[in-house]
Task: structure prediction
Amino acid sequence: MNIGILGATGAVGKQMIECLEERKITINGLKLFSSDRNAGREIKFNNKLILIEKVKEGSFKGLDVVLGAVDNDLAKFYAKDIINSGAIFIDNSSAFRMDERVPLVIPEINRDDIKKHRGIIANPNCSTIITLMAIWPINLISEIESMIASTYQAVSGAGINGINELIEETNLINKNKKSEIRPSVFKHQIAYNLIPSIGIATSNLYTTEEMKMQNESRKIMHLPNLSVSCTCVRVPVVRSHSISVTVITKEKISIEKVKNSIAKFDGVNLVDDLGNDIYPMPINTTNKDIVEVGRIREDLVFKNGISLFCSGDQIRKGAASNAVDILECL
Amino acid sequence: MNIGILGATGAVGKQMIECLEERKITINGLKLFSSDRNAGREIKFNNKLILIEKVKEGSFKGLDVVLGAVDNDLAKFYAKDIINSGAIFIDNSSAFRMDERVPLVIPEINRDDIKKHRGIIANPNCSTIITLMAIWPINLISEIESMIASTYQAVSGAGINGINELIEETNLINKNKKSEIRPSVFKHQIAYNLIPSIGIATSNLYTTEEMKMQNESRKIMHLPNLSVSCTCVRVPVVRSHSISVTVITKEKISIEKVKNSIAKFDGVNLVDDLGNDIYPMPINTTNKDIVEVGRIREDLVFKNGISLFCSGDQIRKGAASNAVDILECL
Result:
């Protein structure tokens, strides 16, 4: 296979390169594309240096797959070129996710949807991937009717600059230089703080990020009537997202069945022994492809409710690894 | 009034002294009690130095009120002495909170319960106080039947040592000395991490801290049938707790009515303009008595559901200020 990575120098792009190496996928050629600023640099892949190119006419020719790790505008701009050159575009932006002609895929859940693609396959939102990996094993036992989720999202969701901003602000505060803090990636100081807003405000007073949890979950799980109420909060954590979730299922199911189903499910680790201080934590999922699920218990409000807490690396399964998982399905 | 503070050198005890000064309460005498380790030191109050004493027989004699900022065991140990000496014990521990003979009070909500005291008045759990300050104005419009809450709790909940541990760990990580981290206050590293467990595991797989949200809320709001499902998570924030809450009310109520009720309610600030990046944040409530409430919106799962996000200082309204509020009612 000949593979291209669009946006190869960002946090997700770099992780895609790392994932391709780790998975030992047979690659004939790898082309790396980036903005003007980074073009001309070289990145190591399988012990060879690969030149980072600026995209120009014909750049995508001869490629079988292009992994996209750029923003919506750039994804839309290059999509046609990619498809016209005969490559399949696995896009991590949200530009095409809700397009009916575009499959939105977490391979562990809806791998078969990939077959319907017409050139573009969309990679879901990071919090949505991590949450659905945790709750899909429950849906396998009894259909999920609704979900209430509060997220604890790492700064890596805003890329490498988000991580740098957290560390720099924390250093300033620890050195009693709080007055020098000038947030630029985030709207407010994120060090030792929480920002309960990710994305853009929509008319129903939810954010775009919060609505993705409902809209993308419906599409991925093939549950068009699923109702989801989500609150997205940025937390001063480096790169793993965590989610506190309550799901309401059609039938009442036992905690034991839920745990068994989660334990058997690929890509997920059951990490659940509260009495011994064992539960999902961002530091334990950082730089891993696995999603941890724990704190599983009967919800105290809903007869058919299950509550849990999950955590997964936003850059890996939340983005790059899932895109490479899709690539492997091809 | 003659006032004593039991546990005067801890985070909450120190804050109680500060609150007494700020409120300009007329105090004849102030006695400060602490453990062996801190006895003999002096603390400034209204420009006078006050000696910190070790409690001995007769220490509480002549006092009208003792504010307690010690753990459950010490609170139980000294309660009898305090009452026998004729003082009223306003206790911040959880030792007496669920005792039927002991009022559990947030003055803005159930001030009248104070009258029924028999020597002890209990100060509620910190997250419970902050959450109930935010949702009580909703209950004034339509009775709350159930609540789903996910907390984002600051390290100050574990006292001054909790704050120090966060800062020290963060410094070690920023200096690439992660391997030197030895958590002692918390079960795991808290810097750049989340710990989804506060308190002790109970048989229903919730923690004691999570069950307080249901049990104490029922007692304070006089809603014996209220069902609450709560997930408590420690976050790397210094001293303000935040809570993502969904409440389900008896009748459907409009967002406008909810906002009006919150805006009118004493002790709470409506901070809710998502489009302009205005919402409750821990850095904005730190060292303030006010609880911020925002992100108010119709829940997408429940017809009669309202979702919101609130934040308040754990040491102030979550502990010391509420105790002093109770004192002022006396």
Summary: Chain A has a mean pLDDT of 97. The first helix of chain A runs from residue 11 to 23. Chain A touches chain B through 60 residues (CB under 8 Å).
